[in-house]
Design goal:
The structure holds 2 protein chains of 2 kinds.
Chain A (H helix, E strand, L loop, with lengths): L1 E6 L6 H12 L2 E6 L6 H7 L3 E4 L5 H16 L3 E4 L11 H9 L5 E5 L6 H14 L11 E4 H7 L2 H4 L6 H9 L4 E5 L16 H17 L4 H13 L1
Parallel strand pairs in A: 1-2, 1-4, 2-3, 5-7
Antiparallel strand pairs in A: 4-6, 5-6
Helix pairs in contact in A: 3-6, 5-9
Chain B lengths: L1 H19 L5 H19 L2 H10 L5 H52 L1
Helix pairs in contact in B: 1-2
The chains are: A alpha/beta, B mainly alpha.
């Protein structure tokens, strides 16, 4: 089990987050320093976490991908991705990883819908519909990936994605990976801001990009009707 | 018409200079050489556009040059963005591999020292 924590300028929280995981579970922790300008790298190292130093900033998803690439080369069986800002509670990781460890799922999403504002929930339900993704929390950075998905998520089809949400989930779903959601509590951010929801221009560019992806990556018509009829049958 | 020919020669010379100084990759140079030749033909044979335009039924032949030029530029820019996306994939892949290899190297080094 490797816990990958992508971090860009998170010096205030990174050591606490990394050591809470190590203390609670004894798992290996890999902090992926996404070209930070602050002390993130040295504080992660001082906390005893492994460190991956990206030479250029690749964004949260690019950093997670780098961590999974490392896990794949080192032969880890599972990767947990977790935010560096203290939003995710290390205590929830046991129940989050259980479905994947028991081979009930290939990917498990730590979902927390209540943290989202009304606007964000509206955007999610829209993307859910357009991309035919039946998941409650599309943007959660708390996820478990099993070894089976490694080649797919570090492959060229996932490299151009700028965000880890719709595009990655669509890729996994199309490849027939079993995706499950586990509800977990999440703390409000203790420091820093969401990188995506930091300014209106960014929000707009995020929404437009994700909308394009959602439309372009939706399953082919035949699959889509199958999904719909399955939903009706339930 | 002389102006157009001079322009074509200018483009052609610029391409040759850029290739000589390693400022332009061969594949792109071919495209620009093609542009220079096309402009040259327009300069040397001013009647060419009128004749082609008449054949195609274009009412105002000079528009033909503009339409064709815009279409070609559109294609050029589109292929440039496709190429840029491919390079971006490669760049991200390389950056990740570099970071992973650096880490593996440090682990090896730390293992040796123990």
């Amino acid at each position: 089990m490797l816990v990958v924590i992508p971090a860009r300028n998170e010096q205030a929280t990174i050591a606490g987050v990394a050591s809470s995981v190590m203390k609670a579970h004894g798992w290996d922790v890999l902090v992926v320093n996404d070209a930070s300008d602050d002390d993130t790298a040295s504080r992660a190292r001082a906390a005893g976490a492994g460190l991956l130093d990206l030479p250029i900033s690749l964004g949260a998803w690019g950093a997670v991908q780098a961590g999974i690439r490392y896990a794949s080369m080192k032969g880890y069986a599972y990767v947990v991705s977790m935010d560096a800002d203290g939003q995710h509670d290390a205590a929830t990781l046991k129940s989050l990883t259980r479905p994947v460890r028991e081979d009930l799922a290939d990917v498990c999403i730590g979902a927390c819908v209540s943290r989202a504002s009304r606007a964000r929930r509206l955007a999610w339900s829209f993307f859910r519909h357009v991309a035919s993704l039946p998941f409650a929390d599309l943007t959660s950075g708390l996820r478990v990936y099993s070894r089976k998905t490694f080649d797919l998520v570090i492959g060229p089809g996932a490299t151009l994605l700028d965000y880890q949400d719709v595009g990655v989930l669509a890729l996994l779903q199309r490849a027939g990976m079993r995706i499950m959601e586990v509800n977990v509590p999440m703390a409000p951010r203790t420091s820093g801001k969401s990188r995506i929801f930091s300014s209106w221009g960014r929000v707009l560019s995020y929404l437009l990009q994700t909308m394009m992806l959602a439309m372009a990556k939706q399953p082919r018509m035949t699959n889509r009707t199958a999904v719909k009829s399955r939903r009706k049958g339930q | 018409m002389i102006a157009t020919t001079v322009l074509a020669i200018g483009i052609g010379l610029m391409i040759i200079v850029l290739v000589r100084r390693d400022r332009m990759h061969g594949a792109y140079a071919v495209w620009w050489a093609f542009v220079a030749i096309a402009v040259m033909l327009l300069g040397l044979f001013p009647g060419l556009v009128d004749r082609i335009g008449r054949e195609l039924g274009v009412i105002y032949p000079p528009m033909l040059i503009l339409v064709v030029a815009i279409c070609l530029l559109f294609l050029k820019v589109l292929t440039m963005d496709i190429e840029r996306s491919r390079q971006e994939t490669q760049l991200r892949h390389l950056a990740q591999r570099l970071a992973v290899l650096e880490r593996l190297y440090e682990e090896l080094k730390a293992g040796d020292e123990q």
